[in-house]
Write a structure and sequence with these properties.
Strand order of the largest sheet: 12-11-8-13-16-17-18-19
Largest sheet: 8 strands, mixed
Oligomer: single chain
Strand content: 25-35%
Distance between the termini: 22 Å
Number of helices: 16
Structural class: alpha/beta
Bound molecules: cytidine-5'-monophosphate
């Protein structure tokens, strides 16, 4: 099956200077075996680990190495090489190369190809575990995620330097599987998905506010599962302590009004999944200064917040809308009523007291066809099941 799965795809394989460069040779072979046309671009440092001749033999094409050679002819070879590709995969991607990408630098051929691209860019980081965990690397990764670069791995384990930890490049077969899953066979490949997650925070004064209990775990898991299925995912997130899922673009918001504006700015989309626990009320005008404690108490005038899900579902260009309902009693009846009131085709119901802050959840999916119970499982597992259900509706 793999023999045809990448057929007709032009892949630009970028190799940068890490010891994992030797694995890129095997990756090049696997990509070609899977039917892809592979063009290899190497940095100067990569040439210290593996010779261009190796990649020329494996890809059957001259290897792109120097920006100055690329200036032959009309001098536009770097633009053409990135235009001709369907995707760029940089494997291994060193800490240095990730830093360059994050800053939009283009001081060699490979970084120039990446900057000039209009196609998806995947990177497979490979570095020492301390370099991976270092604050600058993590800052650069956050930027790359925000720029829509898809980060594959790294794996954790024993490293060439003798240390153990995260930073090992995924194995060539795993990288191939990721490309196939996300770029070619993903159930949501080519779809745009917007997810809301976490609580919102509605200020009362500069130090106090109204919020909901929500860790954001379910919403983040849903965003991650949608990306795994090949979608371009925007995660509009209220305040949480969670890391941005790989390959997902996150927009941070605080209030329901900001969440609404951020979601509307992402439309049109194919799917909208409202997982956020949006505060139902806000204080009409938050105090500019900290309110003083008063023994006689405090009365707050509360105004309803906009219902983002209902508003998106009512649009003429409405995406496929999915709501979540956390109820404390009469789960199915309340959730089905909510599905009809908000006019959404799919609603995910769970018992509130059963899920807060936990890593697992027991869910019931409600759609026009009826109930689909999902027995208790890890939220990442549930999120994948939800995404499969959505994909089945769409396809
Ligand atoms: O009305 P309730 O908060 O129970 O509905 C839950 C669903 O509606 C969730 O999917 C939630 O993200 C969404 N919602 C929203 N905007 C609100 C309130 C809820 O999008 N203001």
């Amino acid at each position: 099956m793999a023999a045809v799965s990448l057929s007709g795809k032009n892949i630009l394989l970028g190799v940068t200077g890490g010891v994992a460069a030797y694995k890129a040779a095997e990756l090049c072979r696997l990509l070609r075996k899977a039917g892809a046309d592979v063009r290899v671009g190497m940095t100067e440092a990569a040439k210290r680990f593996v010779t261009p001749l190796t990649f020329q033999s494996l890809s059957g094409k001259p290897v792109l190495t120097s920006i100055w050679e690329a200036a032959d002819g009309d001098g536009m070879a770097h633009i053409r090489a990135s235009r001709e590709a369907d995707l760029i995969l940089v494997a291994p991607a060193t800490a240095e190369f990730l830093a360059k990408l994050a800053h939009g630098r283009a001081d060699d051929l490979l970084s120039t190809l990446c900057l000039a691209r209009s196609v998806p860019l995947y990177v497979a980081p490979a570095m020492n575990q301390a370099m991976w965990s270092a604050a600058p690397t993590q800052r650069n990764l956050a930027q790359l995620h925000a720029d829509g670069v898809r980060v594959l791995g790294p794996a954790a384990g024993e490293q060439a330097c003798g240390e153990t930890g995260p930073g090992r490049m995924l194995e060539p077969a795993e990288l191939l599987a990721e490309l196939l899953a996300g770029h070619v066979h993903g159930e949501l490949a080519g779809r745009r998905v917007v997810v809301t997650a976490g609580p919102t925070f509605e200020p009362i004064d500069p130090v106090r506010g109204l919020t909901n209990r929500s860790s954001g775990k379910m919403g983040y898991a849903v965003a991650s599962a949608a990306r795994e299925a090949g979608a371009a995912v925007c995660l509009v997130s209220g305040p949480t302590c969670l890391a941005v899922p790989a390959g997902v673009r996150r927009v941070d918001v605080e209030t329901a009004a900001q969440m609404r504006a951020a979601v509307l700015a992402e439309l049109p989309a194919d799917v909208f999944i409202a997982v956020a626990a949006v505060a139902d009320y806000r204080v009409e005008t938050a105090a500019r200064q900290k309110l003083k404690k008063d023994a006689s108490g405090l009365r707050l005038e509360l105004t309803p917040t906009p219902d983002i899900l209902a508003e998106v579902a009512a649009r003429a260009d409405a995406p496929f809308c999915v709501g979540f309902a956390a109820e404390t009693e009469n789960l199915i009846a309340h959730a089905e009523a909510k599905r009809q009131r908000k006019n959404v085709p799919l609603l995910v119901a769970n018992l509130a007291q059963d899920t807060f802050g936990r890593d697992s959840a027991e869910l019931v999916l409600l759609d026009a066809a009826g109930r689909h119970p999902l027995p208790r499982a890890d939220k990442t597992v549930q999120a994948r099941a939800i995404i499969r259900h959505i994909a089945a509706h769409l396809n």
